[in-house]
Design goal:
The protein is mainly α. Helix 8 packs antiparallel against helix 12 and helix 13 packs antiparallel against helix 14.
Length: 418
């Protein structure tokens, strides 16, 4: 769910890469699916702790608010990595950055396996975020280039579908796998990390065997952090897209931080497998909605996303109030689908309005603000939960998100009128 200036190079023709001519097309086809599988694995690892947070709470005795702090630390890691390292694969190569990102996640897995305590959990989540920030943009760019080298002149539809499914779908796979392992096998705070850690090790080896798609420049550019700017010709449209990203990722942040506690506490269903399954279906709905609406215009997709997310979030609050698991899950599916459509429309709008030379800069701004939403609103919900009931806190979350969605609609209308 993040991107940097690495995508600028991904939008070029793979045929322009001298490295691309050193391999047969079949190698690029195999490489495409290899990187897709690695992408899924890495994103799944980032959400493995989701259904396990109640177990950490019971083990260390910390509050729901602390869970949101742990999640916010992860988001901070992603933001820092996105700004400092998300774009360097443009000149050092995709494979090196992907391997470094996977190794960071392996370090995090070792930390998770070492001691299941709050301080270690915080450090492990920060390291995970650093790896994810490096990986998402690089993997997306690498998939685009491998696809173009395998099918030169072909439609980008396969790349768009697979990259979306790998990113959003991978986030849903992690809780499902962790929940099932924690529910039905022993060592629930260690086994999920060991299983996914082995998959990450395989991923490192797989990346090493995949063709590189970037030719190193004769002179390495002077390093600088990724620049961020809102000046891209359509200020109102850009602000509308950024607000849409903020609001849509807030829903994903809710489901990857606090929902397992809601399901086990407020809704009285403590099953770790069930908690993981709920998160999986919400992210699955987001990925499916992004794929199924691929032919819609950005405006139509945005409007559908606004409506679906608004209805889903409102009903989600109702589901918590009446303590209905069925209502909660159905509302989560609708909200997830809406958030997926809204986020995809935001990315498409920003990519279209920005000049090619500044597209990475524009997208970096979108993703930075979106990840703030991913962390800030769930943390706010955790703070509210210290002073009011769970249902009351969820009501405030819904009100804030609905207000944001209304603002997005107004800003989008103003942008069209200008």
């Amino acid at each position: 769910m993040s991107m940097s200036s690495a995508t600028r190079r991904a939008r070029g023709d793979a045929g322009q890469e001298p490295e691309a001519r050193r391999f047969g097309r079949r190698s690029y086809g195999v490489g495409f699916w290899t990187i897709a599988a690695v992408f899924v694995t890495a994103m799944a690892f980032s959400t493995v702790p989701t259904p396990l947070y109640p177990l950490y709470q019971a083990h260390d005795g910390f509050s729901t608010f602390t869970v949101t702090v742990v999640f916010a630390v992860y988001a901070v890691g992603v933001l820092v990595s996105l700004v400092l390292a998300g774009h360097v694969s443009d000149w050092v190569g995709r494979k090196k950055v992907l391997a470094a990102a996977l190794l960071l996640e392996l370090v995090a897995a070792a930390l998770f396996l070492a001691v299941p305590s709050l301080p270690v959990l915080l450090v492990a989540r920060l390291v995970t975020g650093l790896g994810v920030g490096m990986l998402t943009a690089t993997a997306t760019a690498h998939l685009h280039e491998l696809h173009s080298a395998h099918r030169p002149g072909g439609s980008p539809q396969r790349f768009e579908i697979v990259s979306t499914a790998a990113n959003i779908g991978g986030l849903g796979v992690g809780p499902l796998v962790a929940g099932l392992l924690a529910q039905y096998l022993g060592a629930p705070l260690r086994l999920p990390y060991a299983v996914v850690g082995v998959a990450l090790l395989v991923g490192v080896a797989a990346v090493a065997l995949t063709p590189e798609t970037v030719e190193k420049p004769a002179t390495r550019p002077v390093y600088r952090p990724q620049r961020v700017s809102a000046d891209h010709g359509d200020r109102a449209g850009y602000i509308a897209a950024v607000a849409a990203g903020f609001a849509s990722l807030a829903v994903f942040g809710l489901f990857t931080s606090l929902v397992p506690g809601f399901v086990g506490g407020t809704l009285h269903h403590p099953s770790r497998a069930l908690a993981g399954l709920i998160v999986f279906v919400v992210f699955g709905a987001a990925a499916a909605a992004q794929v199924l609406t691929g032919r819609l215009s950005p405006r139509a997709r945005r409007n559908a996303g606004l409506l679906a997310q608004a209805v889903g979030v409102a009903v989600l609050a109702v589901g918590v109030h009446i303590a209905s698991l069925t209502v909660f899950v159905l509302a989560g599916i609708v909200a997830g689908a809406g958030a997926g459509m809204l986020f995809k429309s935001a990315v498409g709008s920003v990519a279209a309005m920005a000049a090619p030379a500044r597209r990475g800069e524009a997208l970096a701004g979108l993703f930075l603000v979106s990840y703030v939403g991913l962390a800030l609103l769930p943390v706010g919900l955790g703070v509210a939960g210290r002073y009011t009931s769970t249902s009351g806190a969820m009501t405030w979350f819904a009100v804030v998100v609905l207000a944001l969605l209304a603002g997005v609609a107004l800003l989008a209308r103003r942008a069209r009128a200008s």
